[in-house]
UniProtKB/TrEMBL annotation:
Subcellular locations according to the entry: Cytoplasm; Endoplasmic reticulum; Membrane; Nucleus
The species this protein was found in: Cyprinus carpio (Common carp)
GO molecular function, one term: calcium ion binding
Catalyzed reaction equations: a 1,2-diacyl-sn-glycero-3-phospho-(1D-myo-inositol-4,5-bisphosphate) + H2O = 1D-myo-inositol 1,4,5-trisphosphate + a 1,2-diacyl-sn-glycerol + H(+); a 1,2-diacyl-sn-glycero-3-phospho-(1D-myo-inositol) + H2O = 1D-myo-inositol 1-phosphate + a 1,2-diacyl-sn-glycerol + H(+)
Chain sites annotated for binding Ca(2+) 5: D693, Y694, D695
Note accompanying the cofactor annotation: Binds 3 Ca(2+) ions per subunit. Two of the Ca(2+) ions are bound to the C2 domain.
Domain EF-hand: 134-169, 170-205
Signal peptide per UniProt: none
Residues bound to substrate: K430, K432, S509, R536
Protein name, UniProt field: Phosphoinositide phospholipase C
Requisite cofactors: Ca(2+)
Keywords (A to Z) from UniProt: Calcium, Cytoplasm, Endoplasmic reticulum, Glycoprotein, Hydrolase, Lipid degradation, Lipid metabolism, Membrane, Metal-binding, Nucleus, Repeat, Transducer
GO biological process, one term: lipid catabolic process
Length: 744
């Protein structure tokens, strides 16, 4: 369905103006503003741009890479030129993943509106496409890349070159005979639609056809009964599979005749298998499905470290954009490092380093605007406070005035922390607080401060003081700020001390090395501590490159706030994304019962000692791959893919196995290999599928990955839809697997 905003008179004018192309000013800062020529390509799916001095070589980006269009001064760069360019001429394109924003200024309001409305309409149009249209679209995009002279047709030589670009290395005779079959007009060239047919013949999935024929009574189609049998036998669906078969026919069968006769063709069967319902992720766990009324300490909370940084910890830029990105990803605990700024304005940056500074009031305004866009559940703002009393008073005023009713100030004593449900749309501040409200404003405050921890992070001071007493930090704290704090930062003495004296809203922070030390020395005590108290873990101060530690070790102990550098892509953030993709991306995941029960102690180091120990056998048959992206963009380069399955969880479960690599085929590699694992603690396990390009001389190159909690896996024949290093979709790349889970 084409969106109305594209078809009306205004929509038509917008598209024509964009296709004609125009000069827009690209803005990076107050001093960096350059003219670029931007033009919507004929396919209405790509935007080309070039410097004013470049002759005719346009670089391009796809509309499908754009996540949002923001009108006006809605970025730091555009705010910095607000006095020069009015808001109605400015707009920002926000891209998916970690790619930077594009800030643009048009010559007139009318031109800005053409782009803002035009791109918005094209994005809406793409979102409304069904899967088969998306695939046709993807093939057409490739076709237009190969059609160099833009006459709408390609010959066999161009088609071969295009197949190489698409990661296909194939037998010339086979390709030639299919080319002739697709060339219905007998012109020795293929037009756009003919090429789509050619591609579909090339990608015919023999392994899916075999499975289809195993269940088809007549070898031509699946009746409702055939499909029901497949759902019961292979996908292990129980009750309701007869009704479900009918729903699937209705939803995925492209042929009207087959649909009316309650039949499914092989095309419909393939569309079901590649759909979200046929994916490895159980759709029932996609939306909010957990009990959200338990105390906060019973949940894992998606948490970011040094949220203000876009890059590394030493000289990278600080930006409110980093807060927007983290909050949009469902992050529910952000960090604010506050320092004295000029003109009495507190600033946020990584103290004593060359990272740039941003104003605290801008950070709080951004948090107020974006706090509940991705999730309605409470947001914790962790404050590291290095400000003078005067600037702390300013901090308190900003938090009160800008956050208003969203700020939770009621710190009523109770025996347990409130639940995420009870705290919906509330912002909780975590930081230093007076020991009791009657203390004088320059009284002593106990706190676990990350900067102080870094200074102590040497082996000499690793063990707690022998007398059990911890010196209080002599810290000037302003009462107005102390009164706003809900989660009170306290120094950790011992598990015994916490058990007897800690209040529910008191919370300690541990560096990754401290947390690891306690988990090895006192695993059960740590787990018990985390049934009542919130624990925050943060990366070692030595990680100046913003690298991350593996969060799974901390989740095994029941630590709730495991803070990661969200700006750094890699395996650690894949695991974080994998855990928090379930439960409606709410940023809260209920911990398994074994980590919430106080009467039965669980130790991740000895999972076989639990009462209800039932290890599972996990079989993954890696069957085939589909349209894997190229790693190197050279025309002649084709990948040699292999699949590795990695298990993360309790130490006994950590394992990895991989298939052999397939030479020169990123298009439709066939592995047909079964990997087998024993899972001792299923409720804590995460499974990561990684596809790499094999290289015998150097490290393998990353192609794509997908991470999923073991408890969210659907058995049977499933597609694993791969994600890029940044965690964004690389549709239509996938691997096709068969999953079997049995008791040992």
């Amino acid at each position: 369905a084409i969106s109305r905003s594209l078809t009306g008179e205004q929509g038509h004018q917008n598209l024509e103006a964009m296709k004609a192309g125009m000069f827009l000013r690209k803005v990076k800062s107050r001093t960096w503003k350059r003219q670029r020529h931007y033009k919507l390509q004929e396919d209405c799916k790509t935007i080309g741009y070039k410097s004013s001095w470049a002759i005719n070589s346009y670089s391009t980006f796809s509309i499908s890479d754009v996540e949002a269009v923001r009108a006006g001064h809605q970025s730091e760069a555009l705010l910095s030129v607000a006095d020069e360019f009015p808001a109605d001429r400015c707009f920002t394109l926000v891209f998916r993943g970690r790619r930077g924003n594009l800030d643009l200024v048009a010559e007139s309001t009318k031109e800005a509106q053409a782009w803002i409305q035009g791109i918005g309409a094209l994005m809406e149009n793409m979102e409304n496409m069904d899967e088969s249209t998306k695939l046709d679209q993807w093939i057409s995009d490739w076709f237009s890349k190969a059609d160099l002279n833009k006459d709408g047709r390609i010959n066999f030589k161009e088609a071969k070159k295009l197949l190489k670009m698409m990661n296909v290395d194939m037998n010339e005779e086979h390709a030639s005979s299919l080319f002739k079959m697709a060339d219905k007009s007998k012109s020795e060239t293929l037009e756009d639609q003919e090429f789509v047919e050619f591609y579909k013949m090339l990608t015919e999935r023999a392994e899916v056809l075999d499975l289809f024929q195993d269940y088809s009574s007549d070898g031509q189609s699946l009746s409702q009964c055939d499909l029901e049998e497949f759902l019961r036998e292979e996908q292990l669906e129980g009750e309701g599979s007869y009704e479900h078969a009918l729903q699937l026919i209705d939803r995925y069968e492209p042929s009207d005749t087959a649909r009316m006769n309650y039949m499914m063709s092989v095309d419909g069967f393939l569309m079901y298998l590649t759909s979200p319902e046929g994916s490895i992720f159980n759709p029932e766990r996609q939306d909010l499905f957990q009990d959200m009324s338990q105390p906060l300490a019973h949940y894992y909370i998606s948490s970011s470290h040094n949220t203000y940084l876009m890059e590394d910890q030493l000289k990278g830029p600080s930006s409110v954009e980093a807060y927007i990105q983290a909050l949009k990803r469902g992050c529910r605990c952000v960090e604010v490092d506050c320092w004295n700024g000029s003109n009495g304005e507190p600033v946020v940056y990584h103290g004593h380093t060359l990272t740039s500074k941003i104003l605290l009031k801008d950070v709080i305004t951004t948090i107020a605007n974006y706090a509940f866009k991705a999730s309605e559940y409470p947001l914790i703002v962790s404050i590291e406070n290095h400000c003078s009393i005067e600037q702390q008073e300013v901090m308190a005023r900003y938090f009160r005035d800008i956050l208003g009713d969203m700020l939770l100030t009621n710190t009523a004593d109770s025996s347990e922390l409130p639940s995420p449900e009870a705290l919906k749309r509330k912002i909780l501040l975590k930081g230093k607080k007076f020991e009791n409200e009657s203390e004088n404003p320059t009284g002593e405050v106990s706190d676990e401060d990350e900067a102080a921890e870094m200074n102590k992070d040497s082996p000499v001071t690793e063990s707690p003081p022998t007398n059990g007493k911890v010196p209080k930090l002599q810290q000037n704290l302003c009462k107005e700020l102390s009164d706003l704090i809900f989660c009170k930062s306290v120094h950790f003495h011992s598990f015994e001390h916490s058990r007897t004296s800690a209040k529910p809203n008191e919370m300690s922070s541990f560096s990754e090395s401290k947390a690891r030390k306690y988990s090895k020395e006192a695993g059960s005590d740590f787990v018990l501590h985390n049934t009542r108290q919130l624990t925050r873990v943060y990366p070692s101060g030595m990680r100046t490159d913003s690298s991350n530690y593996c969060p799974v070790d901390m989740w095994n102990m029941g630590c709730q706030i495991v803070a990661l550098n969200f700006q750094t892509a890699g395996m650690e953030m894949d695991l974080n994304d994998g855990l928090f993709t379930q439960n409606g991306c709410s940023g809260y995941i209920l911990k398994p019962e074994i980590l919430c029960k106080r009467e039965r102690l669980f130790n991740p180091e000895n999972p076989e000692k639990r009462d209800d120990y039932h290890p599972l056998l996990f079989y993954v048959k890696v069957i085939s791959g589909q349209q894997l992206p190229k790693v190197k963009q050279k025309a002649w380069f084709i990948v040699d893919p292999l699949v590795r399955v990695e298990i993360f969880g309790v130490p006994l479960d950590q394992a990895k196995q991989e298939t052999k690599h397939i030479d020169n085929n990123g298009f439709n590699p066939l592995w047909n290999e079964t990997l087998q694992f024993t899972i001792h603690t299923p409720e804590l396990a995460l499974v990561r599928f990684v596809v790499e390009d094999y290289d015998k001389a150097s490290r393998n190159d990353f192609i794509g990955q997908y991470t999923i909690p073991f408890t969210s896996i659907q058995p049977g024949y499933r597609h694993v839809h791969l994600l890029s290093k940044d965690g964004t979709s690389i549709h239509p790349s996938s691997i096709y697997v068969h999953i079997k889970i049995t008791e040992q």
